[in-house]
Every structure is written in C-alpha cells, then in structure tokens.
Amino acid sequence: MAKGEQIVCSAEEYFQERGPTVKFSHLHYFVQETRFCRKIDPEKCILKDVSGIMRPGMNAIMGATGSGKTSLLDVLAGRKDPAGLRIGSVLVDGRAVTSELRLSSAYVVQDDILMGTLTVKENLLFSANLRLNPKLYTTTDKHSRVAAIIQDLGLADCANTKIGTEFLRGVSGGERKRCSIGMELITSPSLLFLDEPTTGLDSNTANCIINLLHKLSRRGKTVIFSIHQPRYSIFKQFDHLTLMHKGEVVYAGAADYALDYFTNLGYQIDAFNNPADFFMDITNGEIIISHYLFFCTTFCSFMLLCLSTAECQNELATKYQESELCQKVLEELNHMNQRTDGEVKSHDEAAKYATSFLYQMRVVCNRTMLNILRNPQTSYAQLALNIFFAILVGLIYYQIPMTLPEALQNRYCMSGAFFFLIINMVFGNLSAVELFIKERAIFIHENSSGYYRTSVYFLSKIFADLLPNRIIPIIVFSAIAYYMMGLKPAFEAFVCFALTMCLVSLAGVSLAFLVSASVSSFAMANILIALPFVFMMVFGGYLVNLNAMLSWLSWLKWISIFRYGLDATFINELKGQLFYNNGTILPGEIFLKAQGIDYSMWGFWQNQVALLGIITVCMFLAYVQLRRINRWK
Ligand SMILES: Nc1ncnc2c1ncn2[C@@H]1O[C@H](COP(=O)(O)OP(=O)(O)OP(=O)(O)O)[C@@H](O)[C@H]1O
C-alpha cells in the first residue's frame, strides 16, 4: 500500500477485513497458588476441558463471578501465561497464537488504562503514532483515522477533554471506555477481545458500548468479550454464547438457541424473565428442573432437592458434553486438528514493532513531557523543597569563617554543612521510587500491546524525570547554598561542587529507580529504599569508625554514596584553602591528610567515577528489572 493512499473520510472503510475464526479445544488451564511465598499443592485447575468455536460476529462469554470468563478470554487472546496451559490449543484461522497475532488483535482491558492528563484525541493519536507504520501512513493519514474513530465512537463532543486523573475530573465512564476501545481500533484489527466492557457502566452507556461492538461485528469483525448480567436489549445482540460455570462450559452455541437448549433440559423460564438472568440462575442453582419441584412439598424432598441442586450444577457441564451441540463442535475441532497438526507447533517469534526506536523515543518522550507539564505538582514540590533546604543550610552556616576551629567544624564535622548537604541530596530524592510504580499498569498494557519497546519507556522516563525533577532543582540548590555559606569563591570550585551534588543525587535516584522497577507497591518500595540509604550513611566512614567496630563490614564504605560525596566535597573545599588559628596559617591539605583522604587530582575524580559507576549499575539493573516484569495476566 503506497503512502498517502490511506486518507479516508469515513471509518467504515477501515474495518472491511473479515475477522478470523477462533477455535479452541480441550483447554485445561492450571494456576499455582502461593501462601507466604510458598507454593500450595496441588495446582488449581481454573479451566476444565473447555472447547469451542467463535466466528466473526458477537461472541459473548457469560458466567457468574469466578466462573472463568476472564481466564478463558485471556487464554484465547494469548495474554495468559502459556505455562499454565497443560492441555489444549487455541487456533486463530488455523494458526497458533504467536506474538505477532497477539499484536495484530486488539485487547481492551476491564480497567481502562489511559493517560489521564491527555485528551481523548491525544490518547488516540498516541496509539496511531506508535502502532501505524510511518512508512505506510503519513501524519495526515493518522489524523484522518483518529478523526474517523472519534466520529464512529461518538466521541466528538469530548475529543478535546482530558481523560482525567485522581485530581482532575475528566470524561465520563462511558466515554473513557469508548476511548479505550478506540485506542485498539486504531490498527483496524479484525479480532477484538474485551474484558467485561460494560462493568461499572449504567445500563444506557452499557447499551451504547454493546451497540458499537455490534456495529463492528456486522462489518465482519470477530468480537469476543466477557460479560455478566446483560440486560435483554444487550443479550439479544449476541450471536454466540459461551456459558461458564466453575471453569467448565455449560453451554456453547448460538445465543438464540440457548433458551431452547435449557428448556429441553427441563428448566422453565418465568414469563417476562430476562434469558440472561435465567441462565445465570440455572448455573447458580437457583432454578431447578421442574420435575424436582414435586419433592419440594415435604422436608424429605427438600433434602433431596439440595443434593440434586448441587449435583445439577456439575451435571450441567456433563449434560452439555453429552449433547449433540457439543459433539458437533468437537467433531469440527477434531477435523481441524487433523488438518493443522503440523502447523500448530510453529514457534513464537519476537514481535515486530510498527515504528523504529528513535521514532518511539520521540513520541513517548513527548507524551511524558506533556504529562509532567500538565501534572507539575511533583516537579514544583521538588524545586520548592530544594530552595527551602538551600536557604535553611545557607542561614545556619551563613558565611562560614576562615578561622579555626569554626572553619572546619562547620564544614565537615559530623553535624557540619557538608554532611547536611549530602543527606539532603540522597533523601530528598525518595519521590523517585514512585516513577515505575505509578504507571506500572499502563506500561504493562502498552508494552505488551506493542506500542513501544521497554528501553524506550525506560529512557523516556529517565530523561523526563532527571531533568525537571533532579538536575534543575539541584543546580538551583547548589547555587543558593554555596554562595550563602561563603565557600571557596572560585567559579570552577562551584562547578565541581554542583557536579558532586548532582552525581550524589543521581546515585540516590538510580537506587530508587531500581527499587521502583522491582516492586509494585509503595509501602514495599519505601522499606526497601530506606534500608540501603541508612546502611550507606552509617558505613560511610563519618559516623562510625569502621576499623574500631564491625571491621568485617567495613567493605560497605566502598558502595557508600555518602562517603564518595563527602570526600569529593571536602577535597573541593579544603584543597588550596588557608585557615587561620591564633596568628598561624594552616593549609586545608593538613586536615585532609589527617582524615586519610587522597587529595590528588585523581583522588578527587575517583569519587565522581565511583558515583558514576553506582549510577550506571543501578540504572542497568533497573532496566533489567523492568524487562522482567511479568506481562502475563
Ligand atoms: N493467577 C491466579 N491464581 C489463583 N487463582 C486464580 C488465578 N487466576 C484466576 N484464578 C481463579 O480462577 C477462577 C476464575 O477467575 P476469572 O478471573 O477467570 O473469573 P471471572 O469469571 O472472570 O470472574 P469475574 O467476573 O469476577 O472477573 C477464580 O476462582 C479465580 O480466583
């Protein structure tokens, strides 16, 4: 397809490709439960011998909570850990589910995962920019496609409204859901999975969403979704119904035949009852086969009834498996399995992204910067905190004299200015632990849907966080504190001081990033970050004489951010300075020697190199941790 050929005015033309047929046979899915980090035996089987065929149209998966709807949907969409699928296979148009297939289909998660500070249109454009190949689609094409989707989903009125965050009221729940669906429709997928698209919406909005899906299905798409308790106007739009109970299929077939099927089994629907509610009542055991009613008149029969009701629920799955309906499906699946036996074992190649690394970098960095600009509280707070502490330190240690003993006491004694500065640099960056935790869900969703590479997300966050939240406030902090305290007047000395402060701060930040990428809760992150900071402070060599106590732990000073920061600041300040004591002049080097600090040129720069080393190692490990995040549902 040549570039530019995609400029289309109507959404209709985007959705012409016919959807695939999804066939799955004898799925047995197991999960390993854990308690106190220990595996509980035996494994839990959450899908038991589930088979079916879903063709282009509206395919609903219904069932009570915990019946296995989402699990089945995830297995079909290739989003569930394949290790749990012990028996059975899923074929999409006769092909096994690979990463490529996963990326070409659409998956709308239950909790809408959208960037709250961006408008509906900006979110859709973000998806278009990253998921449409720029070699095939011009910027105008992408804008046309976004406009068509906005029109098609009825989002025109709120196109320029922000989605909303916890601090900002944005679009309504229904508009949010439609925007989530739009994000997936950008690639005009022929196969669409939706996890409970109507949950949490009022009945009218739910109706609108289902109407929209119905419209898509009539254009040939295969729409597969899980749902519970649909009202009748929604239910009647289903083409195919899979009814689940405790991980087993109790009915799979045409939605409009389901009522006849259960009536044939002996269940009677009340007049005016909604068939969807009726089916749910049957699976929950609240409706019983009519001939059992006879026993209900006596207590004895009541006991019998209870037994038969419990049995009845398990029997539903057995009855379905024995039914002609199921036999037909199995026959068709057997036939297909024989034909595709060789093809199924095709290996899963790494998915290809629609856009290059640099292009992704540009788009993702733009969004991250926009997000920071529209949600600047953290950046403002960081800057304000640094200015406050700089003025505080400046006032406490205002114009430190060059006469002893105050000159040295105030500079480097345990309670001195430098220690205070370094502590502020390290602990002032605790907010960095939220970086990867806050957006974990959005990263997992977008990364596994093929928006961008992990490295792109990592680098964009690092650049976007480091500049506004770390480097700029620290330079401001250094300038205020340095000149208020009256430290060495040479400008180079100030530059070296500011550089040391930046490196100390970045070392603390990189450790926070590592923790942030490794855990998913703030509470855990706070515990994990406080521990190494306190250790580094204690074993930095200034609070405790390591040779006198715990000498076997003295090696910890080599990984102490505090030690490198303090050594560098002392050398920078004391080297070449003269101090006065009762008429005698003492060079700063004497004090450095007394402390055992190497004040040569390398002696100073080795601290910066060590800090850079800590930053590099922690950043690298943070990236590795981000890659290791479990993407399976
Ligand atoms: N990773 C897991 N570990 C333990 N149990 C699990 C896991 N995944 C699913 N289950 C269990 O499998 C069963 C089916 O879960 P599933 O989420 O598929 O149900 P559902 O029908 O979609 O429910 P709901 O409507 O509440 O979302 C539940 O009992 C659930 O607790």
UniProtKB/TrEMBL annotation:
Alphabetical list of SUPFAM superfamilies matching this protein: P-loop containing nucleoside triphosphate hydrolases
Keyword entries, A-Z: ATP-binding, Membrane, Nucleotide-binding, Transmembrane, Transmembrane helix, Transport
InterPro entries: AAA+_ATPase, ABC2_TM, ABC_transporter-like_ATP-bd, ABCG_dom, P-loop_NTPase
Key word Transmembrane helix present: yes
Location in the cell: Membrane
An example Gene Ontology molecular-function term: ABC-type transporter activity
One Pfam family hit: ABC_tran
Chain ranges passing through the membrane: 289-310, 379-398, 418-437, 458-484, 490-515, 522-544, 609-626
Gene3D superfamilies: P-loop containing nucleotide triphosphate hydrolases
Chain ranges of the ABC transporter domain: 22-271
Principal subcellular localisation of the protein: membrane
Family assignment from sequence similarity: Belongs to the ABC transporter superfamily. ABCG family. Eye pigment precursor importer (TC 3.A.1.204) subfamily.
PANTHER family cross-referenced by the UniProt entry: ATP-BINDING CASSETTE TRANSPORTER
Protein name according to UniProt: ABC transporter domain-containing protein
